[in-house]
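Format notes (please read before filing issues)

Several people have asked whether sequences and structure tokens are stored in separate files. They are not. Every record keeps both together, in the order shown below: the sequence lines, then the token lines. Line labels are part of the format and must not be stripped during preprocessing.
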Amino acid sequence: MKKILSVLLTFCLLGALCCSFAGCGGPSTTKKTDRGETFIVTVYRARSAGMADGERDAAVKAAIEEKFWKDTGVSIELDVQIYTNTQITDIVDVNFNNKNKNIDAICHYISEDDGSAIAKYAKDVNSVKNLDPLLEEYGKNYLAAIQKNDEGHLADRAGYFPDGNGNYNRTMLSSVTKEGGFGILMRKDLMKNVQAKTGLDPEDYDITSENYKSMTVSEFEKVMRAIKEDSSNSVTTPVNGAPWDLGRVVAPAYGADGMTSFAKNASGKFVPSHMTENWGKYVDLMYRWANSGIWESESSTTTDDQRQTNLIAGTAAAYLAYPTAEELITLSKKFYAANPEQELMVIAPFASEDQNGNALLDENGKQIVNGNLKVQRSFYGAIIPYRSANADKFVQFMDWMFSDSENYDLCRYGVKGVDWVEGDDYVYNGTTYKTWAYPDNKSEEYLNNPPYSGKYLFIDNINVSNRMSAHYNTTEKVWYSAMYNEFPVFGNTELEGIWLPEVPRSLASQEQTITGDYTEEIRSYAWVGKKNQDKTPAELLVDFVAKWQNDCKAYLDFIDSSYKSAIAYFNQKYAD
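Then the structure lines:
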């Protein structure tokens, strides 16, 4: 009996040792293949707008892995798990510390708000990898690609997060994205129908017209009201877009950055954006438009699919839901397929105006146009959990992708000659664009059902490759070119790419007061066009700002000093 127990004990000990060395019960992170030892690189990434799985995703994956192996001698298998922007934050929280789930990278948009799957982990050096040592060994091409044309070091510094001890560590791989590209799509024919009433000719504001002009917000509002009141059309709610969309294309006309958490006020202090001087005008516009029915009263819950349906069906006159050039062009194709006799146009960013709605002019007598919202240079990023089994392989893969446009295009468009081909160069106002196209024999099929989703391009870098679709018609190419390269952009580059340290617990209640009061007592009422306490949201904002400045002074001082310390740190870091 003792002998049997001894043998059983020996087997148990051996089993325990095997499990400890082999990661018993844990996920498999390597396997044997024809290429030898293959490293399984697991990536969680958000599904991009409009991304749908392609029938050739698996074939493109195999081509990427094969080329990476031939170029580097390292064999990898890409295990990419796709989630929506809503799902990814939850799934990352569930699995981040789950020993049965290996995660080599998390790719998502980066912001200070709760919707990002990156920010809170990137600030914890015990949760994620400090990437500088990995990049020094494996990432020289990656660093060169993000630092190219990086005026102000906005992309480079975006990878650095504070750890709460006064130190900044590179814990995120930065993207380099296009910084412009927003616009408003309008029913040109409907504006023409009310021209006698408004005195505004749509030809003057169509960006395909020579010497086109910008409307003021008041002029745009006049057009929208006239269209709504015109009984000859079916328009019920002229302006279709979410509140955050107004922040992209309307708020900048007032000098307000409607998508950034913090900004500098008139006295030079960094504060929450809704405490800046121009915010009241933006809040009042939302209230007035929602109250009068120019804008959606249920704007925060309406889907963009419904908004597209509204434009196509004729119940909307202006569309501004995540209005990038690509999105507006895609929508216009659907619109014209259903309404070939009607007409759309893109208008330029709104001109600034005085309190009477008159355009403000510069010293040369030209309209002052701030532009639509500037997209952050590093809007997307990737973090690597500290317990990643193949962190070095992920960095090596990103370096390989950024090392050559051929690799980048393979990850973005798929296999050249099968999934896409080179298109003709396009020249607009002296700028030459490289283009991509679907093969002629597949063009019609692939335009409706792309063969490849783009899921293996984890983060963008336009310094490596930046192609325009060759399938755009002449008007669409002008829209794309003007929106990305001609329209001015508005945003606070002084704070761009700088992340705040975690707020001390002693100040958490003050932070929640400022955020909660604004969200619940002001913003929510503006969005539905209602007064609160018999005051408009803009009137109430004045009262609350005075209260916050007194009751939440310690938190506001923390925000201001944190940003100024960060600015000083990066000024010194990049002094050379």
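For reference, the curators noted about this record: Residues 1-23 have pLDDT under 50 and may be disordered. Residues 2-22 form the longest helix (21 residues).
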